[in-house]
Amino acid sequence: MPNLKQLIGTAVLCVTLTALPAQIMAQGTNITLGGINADPRAPVEVTADSLTVDQNTKSAVFTGNVVIGQGTMRISAGQVRVIYDNGSGDIGQLLASGGVTFVTETEAAEAAEADYNLTTGLLTLSGNVLLTQGASALSADRMIVNLRDGTAQMLGQVKTVFQQGGN
What we know:
By secondary structure, the protein is mainly beta. It has one domain: lipopolysaccharide transport protein A fold (Sandwich). The protein is 10% helix and 58% strand.
């Protein structure tokens, strides 16, 4: 079964070849995300095939079919390392690897890795990032999402395909 990136890549290729929309290539771009206003203080639910906890480093590692939920946001990955805040004991940071998928009600993104800092509310996706918003698609080396205000910045080899109307 094709993964999200393959399906989106095929759709982008078809749209590019049939509609010939304008392509913009740049080193960085700012975007507003429609459905990503998450509260980093909201409860975080994690499911996985296995869990290893290390009290000495105040961390935990979830492996196999990891799914993180916080409000309407979902992040899935092969492995997620949870780092706890020294002072409060709350989750401070989530480091996802092994192919990451990030989904909200209106956007979907894929990347090789993700770093979600709950203290700052920043989610950084890196490594072949592909973001879709409806029929439009953006790709870059890295995307930094501010979950508090719903904005994002894409950096490095940014390529976009904009579908006109309704976006």
